[in-house]
């Protein structure tokens, strides 16, 4: 039983020590600059030491040295608790958070206590109990116990405080550490202290290292987790390394036993095998890192020009990922290569169909001009391209005389092609190394690895360049096109303005002579020049009417020009529509009476006009005393024009004894005005063109002697109504059945008035401005 | 009773003669002006019972004539000024009337000679009462 436990505890302690060491190194390497990692590394180095001393102190085999080991074990318990406290306090920060003075005090106190612990004051001797050496303690135990308890208590206190305050990853970390401590403590209490107190047995003491290992592993995980390190990598590597070491250890120990026993015939003492095996482990463990370090040192001293190809590759990868700009990329590639491999300068040439179209040469610092013989280079490139499978040209290995001569005369030692998908895109040229050394097999190997990577990077950047150029060109084209469009637009606007100006000026200039004609005709008709014969009167009357029509036409055209160019201004105000209509009726009344047509307002307040029906029930407006007002928001002059147009049309197309009736209706927020006549009506096919420019019904005037129109009245009316956000419509049951014109206008509301006033804000307040705007 | 004096400012010779003849036939004393400069000179002299002022005239236009006149009052007071123009359908002109101290705004092409005489008579009668 004893033997079993002792061998178990030996294997355990060995495993734990190895695990601790691996973890220590791993955590350190994970972030060598972080104090947390450093403290943890120290802690996980001190723990195995402490465990070893502890182990050695209880081995009956080494009774003679037990006192020494016990003292060491106690001695190392001090820094152990200190480190524990510091780690708890620092975690997860990169810097120790304690002040310098506090640190000095703590380290000082710890050192003092350590001195006491080392002295016989603490442990005066040992006594053997149960075949196990036990320390005989003295007064020195007091400061030791106080300080180590303080440290541990503080550590746990700090951790608990952090757990409460922290969140996220940090909370997670601290939870892991506290769990580690908790598991360790509960295992120690449960399996060591309780059996010791209750059953006076300490068989489980051997598991102590395992418990510490649990804590170490969990803490290491907590620290590393913070850096998002793949825990699987840690486990895999540790396992692999441990297996390696175990294999070597067993192989070594086995070899020694077997060879020693059967070849040389002497029996090795177990302890020496153990020690040798441990050393074998240590050697195996440190072989790789040591080799690397020593290589570095020797290289530095004996082989100055050697470069680390890993470093070069890493640097180049970084460079190639850093930019897409061709200039920058090539500069950086060349600079990295020549400074790492130690070449005085280097060149990169890009070619298209075996002609160089771009080249760049760099020294360590700057871009330089390296003169190559153009013809030579072309020849060289063609040679390289044709033998693209061959890859790198090395001066020393070239047999081709011409090439050798070209390389010599142009100071080129190595040429390597840049090939993407079997298409050569360029070459890199380097002279001899600064040291004068020839390019080694390693160099060539490296070039072979680098060439395709550089080629792809350069190609990408070339394409990027092309795209950039294309996009610049495109942008220019767009700018040009935009400018052309703007010019065209401006020209159109100018033309439009010219047209408007022309119409304005022309109509004004036309009106003057027309006024003269009309006036003199009037004079003649009035008999100012003497009595007229009937025939003469008839002719002059016709001429007079035509002139009148001509003037109207000019006016209408001017109006349309103004409406279409958006230069018309409407002055919105509250208008009583019924009153306005009455004014118009009063003006046309003489003519209506002359024509024998009755014209009046009927009024309906809510019903929709019964379209097509002549059954209009109403009362005469002048007798209407009710309070219904048909207030609209409109420009009275413009609406008057519309009314003149509509009533004028009705007058023209209504026979003697006919009727024109006007009534109003409310519909939502609109006022509808209906102008209904009993005239000749409109054919359905003519309705769609009625409101268009010169959209008068064909022949309407030819058959109507009293009618004279411009064909613009309804178009203008429609435009005016639409300027008021209203709509205009016509309805007729057909020829001979009369016509109903309907237009809507917005009902007056104060809010609407404000809105519209803004919209139609008159830009030209003064009449004078009209002149200058070209009327 | 002394004949009323009317100044007709009109650059178009035909219309100028027409209006002058029309008004003379009604017994008014009529003088004419062809351009802004002449109009201004005659208006500054003052004493007109009515002025019919065209707007689109050579040199200083009708608006400017009124502007200048506002700053330098005539030596003898004038009667009402009427814009007699062919700038049709300009509500903006109407807005400028008060500012320019102009009584009315008549569109030549829309009025028959008879209507013009009627209006002139009306205005002179109105002005005479004041």
Please give a structural write-up.
- Chain B: This is Response regulatory domain-containing protein.
- Chain B: Keywords: Phosphoprotein.
- Chain B: It comes from Candidatus Roizmanbacteria bacterium RIFCSPHIGHO2_02_FULL_37_24.
- Chain A: Keywords: Coiled coil, Kinase, Membrane, Phosphoprotein, Transferase, Transmembrane, Transmembrane helix, Two-component regulatory system.
- Chain A: Its EC number is 2.7.13.3.
- Chain A: This is histidine kinase.
- The complex is a heterodimer of chains A (about 775) and B (about 130).
- By secondary structure, chain A is of the alpha+beta class.
- Chain A has 4 domains: about 1-230, Rhopdopsin 7-helix transmembrane proteins (Up-down Bundle); about 230-305; about 310-460, 2-Layer Sandwich (Beta-Lactamase), CATH 3.30.450; about 570-760, Histidine kinase-like ATPase, C-terminal domain (Heat Shock Protein 90), CATH 3.30.565.10.
- Chain A contains 21 helices and 15 strands.
- Chain A has helices at about 1-30, 35-60, 65-90, 100-120, 140-165, 170-200, 210-225, 230-265, 270-300, 310-320, 325-340, 375-385, 400-410, 440-525, 535-565, 575-595, 635-655, 685-690, 715-725, 750-760, 765-770; strands at about 125-130, 130-135, 345-350, 355-365, 365-370, 395, 415-420, 425-430, 575, 600, 630-635, 660-665, 670-675, 730, 740-745.
- In chain A, the strands form 4 sheets. A 6-stranded antiparallel sheet of chain A has the order 5-4-3-8-7-6, sandwiched between helices. In chain A, strands 10-12-13-15-14 form a 5-stranded mixed sheet.
- In chain A, helix 3 (about 65-90) packs antiparallel against helix 4 (about 100-120).
- The longest helix of chain A is centred in the middle third of the chain and has 85 residues, at about 440-525.
- The termini of chain A are far apart.
- The relative contact order of chain A is 0.04.
- Mean pLDDT of chain A is about 80; it is low at about 605-625 and about 760-775.
- Chain B has about 130 residues and is of the alpha/beta class.
- Chain B has a single domain (about 5-130), classed as Rossmann fold (3-Layer(aba) Sandwich), CATH 3.40.50.2300.
- Helix content of chain B is about 45%, strand content about 20%.
- Chain B is built from 5 helices and 5 strands; from the N terminus they run βαβαβαβαβα.
- In chain B, strands 2-1-3-4-5 form a 5-stranded parallel sheet, with helices on both faces.
- In chain B, helix 2 (about 35-45) packs parallel to helix 3.
- The longest helix of chain B is centred in the C-terminal third of the chain and has 17 residues, at about 115-130.
- Chain B is globular.
- The two termini of chain B are about 15 Å apart.
- The mean pLDDT of chain B is about 85.
- The interface of A and B includes residues 507, 516, 526 and 764 of A.
């Amino acid at each position: 039983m004893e033997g079993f436990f002792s061998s178990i505890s030996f294997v355990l302690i060995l495993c734990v020590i190895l695990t601790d060491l691996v973890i220590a190194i791993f955590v350190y390497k994970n972030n060598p600059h972080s104090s947390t990692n450093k403290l943890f590394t120290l802690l996980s180095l001190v723990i195995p030491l402490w465990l070893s001393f502890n182990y050695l102190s209880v081995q009956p085999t080494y009774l003679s040295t037990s006192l020494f080991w016990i003292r060491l074990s106690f001695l190392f318990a001090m820094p152990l608790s200190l480190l524990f406290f510091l780690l708890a306090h620092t975690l997860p920060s990169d810097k120790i958070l304690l002040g310098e003075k506090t640190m000095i005090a703590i380290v000082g106190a710890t050192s003092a206590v350590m001195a006491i612990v080392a002295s016989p004051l603490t442990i005066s001797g040992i006594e053997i109990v149960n075949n196990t050496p036990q320390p005989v303690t003295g007064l020195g135990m007091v400061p030791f116990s106080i300080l180590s308890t303080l440290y541990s208590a503080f550590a746990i206190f700090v951790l608990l405080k952090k757990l409460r305050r922290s969140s996220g990853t940090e909370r997670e970390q601290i939870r892991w550490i506290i769990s580690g401590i908790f598991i360790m403590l509960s295992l120690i209490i449960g399996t060591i202290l309780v059996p010791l107190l209750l059953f006076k047995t300490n068989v489980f003491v051997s598991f102590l290292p395992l418990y510490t290992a649990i804590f170490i592993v969990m803490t290491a995980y907590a620290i590393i987790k913070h850096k998002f390190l793949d825990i699987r990598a840690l486990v895999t590597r540790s396992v692999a390394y441990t297996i390696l070491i175990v294999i070597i250890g067993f192989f070594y120990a086995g070899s020694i036993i077997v060879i020693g026993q059967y070849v040389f015939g002497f029996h090795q003492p177990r302890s020496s095998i153990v020690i040798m095996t441990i050393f074998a482990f240590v050697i195996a463990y440190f072989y790789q890192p040591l080799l690397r370090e020593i290589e570095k040192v020797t290289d530095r001293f004996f082989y100055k020009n050697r470069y680390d190809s890993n470093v070069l590759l890493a640097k180049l990868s970084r460079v190639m990922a850093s930019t897409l700009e061709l200039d920058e990329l090539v500069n950086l590639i060349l600079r990295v290569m020549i400074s790492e491999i130690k070449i005085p300068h280097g060149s990169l040439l890009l070619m298209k169909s075996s002609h160089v179209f771009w080249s760049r040469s760099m020294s360590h610092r700057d871009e330089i001009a390296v003169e190559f013989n153009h013809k030579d280079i072309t020849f060289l490139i063609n040679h390289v391209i044709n033998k693209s499978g061959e890859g790198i040209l090395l001066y020393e290995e070239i047999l081709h005389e011409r090439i050798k001569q070209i390389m010599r005369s142009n100071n080129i030692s190595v040429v390597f092609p840049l090939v993407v998908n079997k298409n050569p895109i360029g070459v890199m040229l380097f002279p001899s190394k600064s040291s004068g050394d020839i390019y080694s097999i390693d160099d060539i190997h490296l070039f072979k690895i680098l060439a395709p990577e550089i080629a792809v990077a350069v190609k990408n950047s070339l394409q990027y360049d092309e795209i950039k150029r294309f996009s610049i060109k495109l942008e220019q084209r767009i700018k040009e096109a935009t400018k052309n469009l703007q010019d065209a637009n401006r020209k159109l606007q100018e033309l439009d303005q010219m047209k408007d100006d022309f119409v304005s000026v022309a109509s004004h200039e036309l009106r003057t002579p027309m006024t003269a004609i009309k006036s003199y005709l009037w004079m003649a008709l009035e008999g100012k020049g003497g009595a007229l014969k009937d025939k003469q009167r008839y002719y002059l009357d016709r001429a007079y009417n035509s002139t009148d029509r001509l003037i109207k036409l000019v006016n209408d055209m001017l109006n349309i020009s103004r409406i279409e160019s958006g230069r018309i201004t409407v002055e919105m105000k509250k208008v009583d529509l019924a009153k306005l209509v009455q004014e118009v009726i009063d003006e046309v009344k003489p003519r209506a009476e002359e024509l024998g047509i009755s014209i009046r307002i009927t009024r309906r307040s809510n019903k929709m006009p019964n379209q097509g029906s002549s059954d209009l029930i109403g009362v005469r407006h002048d007798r209407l005393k009710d309070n219904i007002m048909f207030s609209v928001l409109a420009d009275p002059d413009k609406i008057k024009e519309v009314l003149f147009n509509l009533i004028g049309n009705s007058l023209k197309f209504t026979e003697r004894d006919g009727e024109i009736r006007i009534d109003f209706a409310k519909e939502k927020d609109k006022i509808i005005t209906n102008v209904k006549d009993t005239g000749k009506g409109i054919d359905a096919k003519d309705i769609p063109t009625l409101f268009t420019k010169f959209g008068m019904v064909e022949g309407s005037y030819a058959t109507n002697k009293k009618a004279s129109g411009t064909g613009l009245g309804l178009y203008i009316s429609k435009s005016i109504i639409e300027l008021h956000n209203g709509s205009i419509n016509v309805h007729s049951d057909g020829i001979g059945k009369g016509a109903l014109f309907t237009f809507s206008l917005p009902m007056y509301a104060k809010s609407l008035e404000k809105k519209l006033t803004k919209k139609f804000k008159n830009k030209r307040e003064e009449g004078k401005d009209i002149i200058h705007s070209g009327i | 009773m002394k004949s009323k004096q009317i100044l007709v400012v009109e650059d178009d010779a035909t219309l100028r003669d027409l209006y002058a003849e029309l008004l003379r036939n009604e017994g008014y004393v009529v003088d004419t002006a062809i351009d802004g400069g002449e109009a201004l000179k005659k208006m500054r002299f003052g004493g007109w019972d009515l002025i019919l002022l065209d707007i689109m005239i050579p040199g200083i236009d009708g608006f400017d004539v009124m502007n200048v006149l506002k700053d330098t009052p005539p030596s003898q007071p004038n009667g009402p000024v009427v814009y007699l123009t062919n700038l049709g359908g300009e509500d903006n002109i109407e807005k400028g009337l008060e500012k320019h101290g102009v009584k009315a705004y008549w569109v030549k092409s829309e009025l028959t000679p008879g209507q013009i005489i009627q209006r002139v008579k009306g205005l002179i009668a109105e002005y005479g009462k004041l």
